[in-house]
Amino acid sequence: PIPKRKKVLPCFSKEELDSLFSNIDTSTSLGKRDYAIMKIAIGTGLRGIDIINLCFSNIDWRTNEISIIQHKTNKQLILPLSADVGNALADYILKGRPNSKSPYIFLKEKRPYEKLKKGATANAIKRCLSNADVVHIAGDGKSFHALRRTFGTELVKSKVPLPTVSQLLGHSTMDTSRRYLALNDDM
Fold first, then answer.
1. What is the CA angle 42-12-51, rounded to 5?
2. Average pLDDT of the residues of the chain
């Protein structure tokens, strides 16, 4: 039998990423939240649902690590927290996050200050794409998940071994990570 074909969707170019991040208005609390969410996505490769579910207890500021149980695989994942991602997160927590006792980091802008819903990351990327004048057509792959694909592809381009890429993305099998090889034209 012929193996099932899997569509390989694109990732963002460096120019598109620069445009996305430079056009987020970080003077507003919504902008700080969008910026932090996008920085976490591009800096760690976390899925949108895992970012929405981030709690203060998942961040270890002393060791600069994020530790979560992945929503999709139900397995623990420990990732490094880089300085730029940590700074964006801290800026949102200290200067943009509504005052709330919620254990979740990312909250709605208006009362009641609750955890974001599932579609919040899709809405964030739509706002950012619109502000950055990055052309997005339905089905072109320029969605929130493209940040994850970009993270994985950049790791492969940097010659990070595929087993390590698989671990950082929290994939159950290395076969899932092989799709990122197809996104790297040079290899």
1. 30
2. 90
